[in-house]
What does this fold into?
Amino acid sequence: MDLNEYQKKMEASELKKTLNNQILELLELFVDLSDLEHLSFYKFDYEYNVFDYEYSLNKDGDKIDKPEHSGKTYRIKIKKDKLIYGYILIDRRVKSKKILKRLLDKIRKHFHEKKQLEKTLLDNDTSFNIFLVYDEELKAFSDNLKSGLKALFNTEVVSTKDITLYSSQLKGKDTKHIIIYLVEDQNKIVQDEQIIKGLNELIIVIGPNDHSISMYCGKLGIENYISINEFKAENIKSIILDTRKELLTKNKYGNKIIGITGITGGIGSTTISMNACDLLSTNLPEKNILYIDLSNTKAISNLFLEGNPLPEKTIVDLINSSEFNIESNLENGLIKRKENFYCITGIQKHIDKEYIERDVFIEKLLEYISSSSDYFNFIVIDLGEADASNLKSTLYDVVNELWVITEMSLPHTSKLKTFYSLLKRAGLKDKTSFVINRFDSKNAISISDATSILNMNDDEKKLFNEMKIPNDYEDLGSCWNYCKLASEHAKNSIFVKKLDSILENKGFYKKEKKSETKSSLFSFFKKSK
It folds into this structure.
């Protein structure tokens, strides 16, 4: 947590105290204007779907012991839209008055403001929506389940045969969503496969006791499959309660760990890594990205990702602090750059270079990466300069893809030949891709010469044509001078456009193409001028 965030939290905490006092004063005024002896307030508990006693007030505004009611009692529910905050308990009917209605409206407003502040303080929204997606034959079952879930949770439950009707709502990150599929067979899941792959929500499937369907759901990242024969609404309560407060992703389909390494230092591995992460987070708002700087020289990613010339915490502090936990990690080196883009900055001290090669650090790092893989869709590891050290050799095995950054100069190609031979002997050839940076530099050799030096076959030669980035010194130099990411401050630069197309061609995301008709029309007008 940085100073600005801490200050905001403190301000929110003070404002919450003020609101609590104002609510008490308004309740005291309600007792007085209603000519009551006292009232009690019961707060709604989302976790257990019950109302818990909070306090009682008399007409002087003093808190008193919980009164015993011998006769009939009356409840005044405090709610806004479908969100319940609690209720006021009184021991006799109150005559409806305009001033009392206005007073209750004010109380509801203050409770709503308090709820919003609690979200800020806890960085967690306890409310969520549930979507029931059902096969036609299971409509009656869906209707019954909808009633049961409404009884279990204080939330909105939507029942539908077509989840695509709510696609825009599901893409929003303001509210968490839980999607429950009710299926008779595998067809509904197959039909919605592409939708499920893109959802970043908790998904539960209730279906027949069929192992093949359960396995198919598992391949799509759906971990919660419940047999319809053994199902009760209470069975999914623990699943929802345990998962709804997760800060990050629930659907793990297509998660990848990508290692990016440069054949020499200063070749652009950090620039490409950081900007690739930012492009992923921008084009995939429903996915979560983690950038890890594992350069074994003094890291500079902190200047671009957190604007801090000398970070207090680095990857060494984070990995040594504890197991993966978002809240504690944010205090020990994990940086939240955007809603879905987190980063871990690299070492700053020369003595740490030796430490990160030790087995104890590597073991902790692998454990951290394994745990965080459950929450981040893409983990991009900036490995710095390529070598066969203990740390990097281990990570070459761990990553799903290994991008090797090189230039088309003779010294770089010669070094690449040695490194690529090591990768092939280690069985890592199939996960390796080459990024040819600054391919159009003056001292660049031809691709045919480079592939000849590397003794590449025809299939391997294709690797040199797929990921080529031209020299864009002017735009990148300007961004480097001000420690800005090109993906944010030079969006139309050659570098960003090329990196964007590489990510799209590799299938990380797909952009909507502009209408051909409009494009042709504009071209016609330009030519006619």
